[in-house]
Amino acid sequence: SANEVLPPRRQADHLMNVYWFYVDPLYPFLDRRKWEQNYANLFAGTPMDTDEVIFVATLNIIFALATQLVESMEPENRDETSDVYFKRAKDLLDLTFWDSGSLELVQYLLLMSQYLQSTSLPHQTWMIVGSAVRVAQSLGLHLPETSALRPTTSQRELLRRIWHGCVLMDRMVSLTHGRPAMISRNLASAVPLPLTSSNAKPDEYGRLTEGSFFVKSVELYEITHRVLLDLYSEPGSRLRSTIHDDRKDEDLAAVMQLDSAMMKWEESLPKFLVLSDADVANNEVSQRQAVILHIRFLHARMLLFRPVVARVCLPPPGFGVGAARPPDSLQSRVMQQCTIYCVEIARSIISLLLKHQAYDGTVGLLPAW
User: Fold this and answer.
1) Does the keyword Nucleus apply (predicted)?
2) Is the model's pLDDT at 312 over the cut of 80?
């Protein structure tokens, strides 16, 4: 029964609060109002407006995620306890995929992929994200009309958040594993992005910045995806890590275009997500979001310039000791500047990580990765 896989109510409430504070602002995959109603019904033993097995399995994944962030526990105990919740969730839900999927199943898979990202189980993360994408597509979430035809704004927004959550996780695991993404660029952009705080009123939970962080993350990972396609992929899906002579002009042009896209993205950030803004430090949620976004932005830029660095630092085949020096062209100067800039970005990331790294067992502001 559900009670056998649930902690005491007080502990469960604490873990839920940790989830709403730390995880949901980054990955808003749940409808909080509906979730809290079903959560209350579960503990009260009254009928629930959802599939109870999937709900309890998802709840255990939430407990697993939240346990990793409970500062009162020793880090070793956090891992051990969160693994218990994860195994409970896994045992509750047999993922055979012979049945037709549901929105709740996609939410469960997305949250499970979130949890798995912070473990040493990369293969499982890859497979679960793929499953989430396939179930979402089977429900038609990749079609703009599926969400557009929903009668209420909250339903429409939830579907869009879930679909773009699939896109985001697809891009993340593709980047992490160096493998092709499942969702094409056209498909990823077909569904409108969720509303952000600039064009939506805050709900009763004061949900102002969450929408913006999520949308800006999706936008940034889409640019990063373009970087992988343009600079790291070859026909036949083989990866490359440097700029080839026969494609140098095209690759450098792509670097410039993608760099411009990244700069426009940074300029479009709302004030409460800009790390250098004075007010951000006064709001822990905003500060955490700003730190994570800035680290991701720097990482994306480093990824952009790395093939140029490889080309500058690794001489082309056949370039021996006695070979003539490469010409001092504008192109070679640009590549040298890209290399210097890439090193500066790497140092900025290190400084940022050191600045915000928590050494006292607290959660701190850094992302799980």
Assistant:
1) yes
2) yes
| Rounded Cα–Cα distance for residues 64 and 71 (Å) | 14
pTM for the model? 0.87
- Alpha helices per DSSP H over the chain: 9-18, 32-44, 52-67, 75-92, 103-117, 122-138, 144-148, 153-177, 185-190, 209-227, 248-267, 284-313, 330-356
Q: Is the C-alpha dihedral spanning 237, 308, 225, 363 positive or negative?
A: positive
Angstrom CA distances, 89 to 19, 66, 80, 113, 236, stand at 16, 14, 15, 13, 38
Query: What number of other Cβ atoms are within 10 A of residue 228's Cβ?
Result: 18
What residues contact residue 51 under an 8 Å CB cut-off, 6+ apart?
102, 104
Give the tens place of pLDDT for each residue, 80-126. 899 899 999 999 887 776 677 899 999 999 999 999 988 888 899 99
Determine the angle formed by the axes of helices 103-117 and 75-92, rounding to 10 degrees.
Answer: 150
What is the distance, to the nearest Å, from the Cα of residue 361 to the centroid of all Cα atoms in its chain? 24
Instruction: Report the amino acid identity of residue 6.
Output: L
Task: Name the burial class of residue 178, with classes exposed (0-12), middle (13-18) and buried (19+) by CB atoms within 10 angstroms of its CB.
Answer: exposed
Token representation of residue 101: 């999927």
Gap between the Cα atoms of 270 and 4, Å rounded: 45
Alpha carbon distance 361, 279 (integer Å):
26
Mean pLDDT of 352-364: 74
| Rounded Cα distance, 176 and 198, in Å | 31
Reported as a pLDDT band with limits 50, 70 and 90, residue 360 is low
Give per-residue burial for 316-333: e unless 16+ CB within 10 Å, then b: eeeeeeeeeeeeeeeeee
Contact 190, 143 (CB under 8 A): yes
Asked if 335 and 308 count as a contact pair (C-beta separation under 8 A), the reply is yes
Evaluate whether 289 touches 25 at the Cβ level (below 8 Å): yes
C-alpha 63/C-alpha 72 separation (Å) is 15
Can you give the residue ranges of every domain in the chain? 209-235+244-314+329-368
Report pLDDT for 283.
Answer: 83
